[in-house]
Fold each of these.
Amino acid sequence: MKTVQLKDIQIPAVALGTWSWGTGANGGDAVFGNDLFSEDLKPIFDAALNAGLNLWDTAAVYGMGASEAILGKFIHERDDVLISTKFTPQSDQSDDAVEDVLAGSLKRLETDHVDIYWIHNPKDVQRWTSKLIPLMKSGKVKYAGVSNHNLEEIKLAANMLAQEGLRLSAVQNHYSLLYRSSEEAGIIEYCNANDLIFFSYMVLEQGALTGKYHAQNPFKAGTRRGDAFHKDVLVKLEDLIELMRNIGLRYHVNPAEIAIAWAMAKGTVPIIGVTKPSHIASAVSAINVKLTTKEIEELEQAAKSTDVEIRGAWENNMM
């Protein structure tokens, strides 16, 4: 299994996301149209560990704790799982919010620490970054990351931690063939130059780049992704998906694996949402795909030609 070095631990080349696990506000039902619970997801968890994929990404706001609670049941008393979860800055939070939210996450995850703890958005970077410092020094947070931050905000967070003898270890932003803002803004280059791991989320654009969905088989209406990737958008993606399918034939994989392999070829660690055992097999297959420079250029040109760029309501422009 291909791995990436995160300071003193090895992490798999692909991380696994749990945004779609459980129901509730910001949960799998509202965003993806899924209703997935422990009994549905345990086989996926087991398949992942058997394949050597042990880094799980979640957040306190995914289903307002539902995702963490499901994951916590699976990792209880295990020491072979790496956990990544998040604090989401919101309005009118007390100065104790980071500590309190982390305490809730640790309880739901049934653990005494998290491997990567993220500040989930750049609201008041100075205030919330400072709250990571005592948690890192206490050992409750092993590594710190920032998500949805632009380059200036990333540098600010890194400098604040450095003043306390600590390090920012990772950045997690939306990055895909259709959305390369973090690359264009120099964020990925900065991460490479400063020993930060860049985690790319929405690499598959919530399923739009898998080849499974098209105008005749659209996403479920009334969901967040269904509203974003409606039929007219799916039509615009047809030529790109066809190219991904043709390149995939050379490697005996599907379009989804090509999208994941592209993200890895760009020097990032993709976070892939998993809701079926086949998604684990897909991630493993993608790790073994080594795209050529020509193929990468073809994919990027075809993606640009779609003129499709979907940015979440929570995302600020990186430029």
Amino acid sequence: MNVVEVNVNPKRVKHDLKKQERSLLLRRFLSNKLMVTGSIIIVLLLLLAILGPKLTPFDPYEMVVKERLEAPSSHHLLGTDNFGRDLLTRIIYGAKVSMWVGFASALLSSIIGLAIGLTASYYRYLDNILMRICDGLLAFPAILFAIALMAVLGAKTENVIIALTIVFSPEVARIVRSRALVVREETYIEAIRSQGASAARIIWKHIAPNTISPLLVKATFVFSEAVIVEATLSFLGAGVPAPDPSWGNILSDGKDVIYTAWWMTVFPGLFIILSVLGLNLLGDGLRDLIDPQSSTK
């Protein structure tokens, strides 16, 4: 009886498995229509924020009084504001501010929340202290807490990011902690600990990677919440200071002329709705992609 020897290349097998995983992930992504829609909306808004300022011929700060409150036309596609500034240009520059504030707030709150959540889950004596601090911060409504922080820090774009990071970090910390507590009790973690691995190695190399999935989903929702809170702060005069363009302060300028210049409130409001809708669709789709069972519940 002849025996056929088969040479198996481990690297080739590993490469094929990764290729199959990527192909499966892509198919699942394309099959989720809501996630695809949300991704398209966010990509378009990011392109608008990045490339828009280079394409528009108008200066967002240039005031042309004789053209104030002009209705949408071929010259000013979305009309002008109460100072004669091109509204589309200011909305484009406002998109840059809103996307940057939302992204930076989501990134920083994710990093801080990850560190707090992992520390609380691993060190039991710190768990009660850190989580009670988080509970105390979460007791305040997000917008009121942000307004209070801005009153202390001052109206400035960088301070808006700091305030929103403080507001949303406790939420992220609790999400990370709940996941990390489950991972901490896994058998392989006990085996690694019994081999003498340091706490830092266990936390950051073995527990942290298993919390990334829920962290990414939460980050998308923090992004959308940050866009809303930033617009609210700017609308109230506690966020991005004038004359810097922001969707919130454009709405604030338009509230006094809402009956005579409807475009000053309708168009920036639509952009806020689109950005939040896109981020929420992306977050829901990402959650379904990571945990397919959640879509069937």
